[in-house]
Specification:
By secondary structure, the chain is α+β, with helices and mostly antiparallel strands. It has a single domain, classed as Aminopeptidase (3-Layer(aba) Sandwich), CATH 3.40.630.30. The protein is 40% helix and 24% strand. A hairpin with a 2-residue loop joins β2 and β3. It starts with a strand and ends with a strand.
Length: 201
């Protein structure tokens, strides 16, 4: 079942955001979920529709099957780190108001586990496939699409992070040529340690 890929649109919010969230629910919840007030997906919807930064629709690509969005992901490099940090701070302040400070603090804590990528590296993130279609090769197609874009851009290296609690995803990445470079131990409640993986382009 071959996917067709296109840039995401703001109107994809209802299908894209649950897939983005599925790429790291524990990490998203640690930063953005506020008990009895708002869920992580509430913030992700806000940021996606806003369009800017690493959570915005402009940065995402979707994969369609028979016109239905069934996969999503984003790619960027370390050159975007400062711009993404500023965009995320603005979105957090706009969404959480006076409660923004703990959210920003949790985000900075998470960056010790899932670090901003280095420059000249194609970093893959927010990789999600519709649950009922997992195991059908769609994740491989999504990653292959991004790797080809990295090669066309002339980048030397691709990278991603994977939770140690998600061995199925790590097995997929290893089949795609990624190799674990480091494991970052987590002491954050509810957030597993993560492995940083790379492969040459």
């Amino acid at each position: 079942m071959p996917l067709s890929f296109r840039p995401a649109r703001a109107g994809d919010v209802d299908t894209a955001v649950p897939l983005i969230y599925s790429s790291g629910p524990d990490a998203f919840d640690y930063v953005f979920a506020r008990p009895d007030r708002t869920s992580a997906q509430d913030f992700l919807r806000h940021a996606f529709v806003q369009g800017g930064g690493q959570f915005g629709w402009r940065q995402h690509t979707v994969g369609e099957l028979d016109g239905r969005v069934v996969a999503v992901g984003t790619l960027f490099g370390g050159e975007a780190n400062l711009g993404y940090m500023l965009a995320a701070s603005r979105q957090i302040l706009a969404f959480f108001g006076p409660g923004a400070l703990p959210v920003i603090h949790h985000g900075l804590q998470l960056e010790r586990i899932i670090c901003p990528p280095p420059k000249q590296t194609l970093y893959l993130a927010h990789l999600g496939v519709a649950p009922e279609l997992r195991g059908e090769g769609l994740g491989s197609q999504l990653i292959a699409h991004f790797l080809e874009r990295g090669r066309q851009a002339g980048l030397p290296m691709a990278a991603l992070d994977v939770s140690v609690a998600n061995p199925r995803a790590q097995a997929l990445y290893e089949r795609m040529g990624f190799v674990v470079q480091a494991e970052r131990t987590s002491d954050l409640p509810g957030v597993a340690s993560h492995r940083y993986m790379q492969r040459a382009l």
